[in-house]
Amino acid sequence: MKKTLLLTGAAAALGTSILFGVVSGNTEPAENDIAVLQGREVVFEALPAAPAVKGVSTSQASSKVLDIAGQYLGADYLLGASTSRTDAFDCSSFTKRVFSQLGIELPRSSSAQAQIGEAVAMDELQVGDLLFFATSGSGGVSHAGIYAGNGEMVSAQNGGVKYAPVDEGYWADRFLFAKRVS
């Protein structure tokens, strides 16, 4: 899409930062010389809108992950639950189920899920990021949850699928890291 811009004295006062397109015409202005263009029309090619950044949650995707996770609130906790079940989950079968409904295939175990995606700092969490915790004596990844915003996660844990705070108490003490997947 071609656009036309008329440079005036006010634009010239902005300096070379106004030069963002390809100048067309019979003469080429000197590099960084806006004064040469003052009062002239400049035709430039407009760039298309930047594509969405892969892996960054949008409000629509964030809402969708919570809608899907919410379908399973109250489902039983069952260690080793089959990924085909929807009445009972362990932590990783739950995250796998929710993300598969978003078109994202995760590995079956929480430790394998922890190996994919991009690391995210705790202060940069977005709804839908995966959270990983050490809940066994090994100190390695043994629990996964989905960040739900406002310092909470939704996960399959003792007591079933539910929301729990991650910024204090039990989960805060066991938090290892977060990942963003797409």
Topology:
Layout: E1 2-6, H1 9-13, E2 41-45, H2 59-70, E3 76-77, E4 88-89, H3 91-100, H4 110-113, E5 118-120, E6 130-133, E7 143-149, E8 152-157, E9 160-165, H5 169-174, E10 175-180
Parallel strand pairs: 3-4
Antiparallel strand pairs: 1-2, 5-10, 6-7, 6-10, 7-8, 8-9
GO biological process, one term: proteolysis
Domain NlpC/P60: 59-182
Organism: Planococcus lenghuensis
List how many beta strands DSSP finds. 10
Residue runs with pLDDT of under 50 for 5 or more positions: 1-34, 44-59
Rg, nearest Å: 25 Å
Euclidean distance between termini CA atoms: 31 Å
- The overall number of domains is 2
Percent helix? 10-25%
Given the structure, what is the number of helices? Answer: 5
Q: Record the strand order, biggest sheet.
A: 5-10-6-7-8-9
**CATH classification class of the largest domain:** Alpha Beta
List keywords for this structure.
182 residues, alpha+beta, endopeptidase fold (from Nostoc punctiforme), 2 domains, two-stranded antiparallel sheet, 5 helices, 10 strands, 25% strand, cysteine-type peptidase activity, NlpC/P60 domain-containing protein, Peptidase_C40, hydrolase, protease
Any overview of this molecule?
This protein folds into two domains: 2-45, no CATH class; 59-180, endopeptidase fold (from Nostoc punctiforme) (Alpha-Beta Complex). Helices cover 20% and strands 25% of the residues. The protein contains five helices and ten strands; from the N terminus they run E-H-E-H-E-E-H-H-E-E-E-E-E-H-E. It has helices at 9-13, 59-70, 91-100, 110-113, 169-174, and strands at 2-6, 41-45, 76-77, 88-89, 118-120, 130-133, 143-149, 152-157, 160-165, 175-180. The strands form three sheets. It has a six-stranded antiparallel β-sheet. The radius of gyration is 25 Å and the shape is globular. Belongs to the peptidase C40 family. Pfam families: NLPC_P60. This is NlpC/P60 domain-containing protein. InterPro entries: NLP_P60_dom, Papain-like_cys_pep_sf, Peptidase_C40.
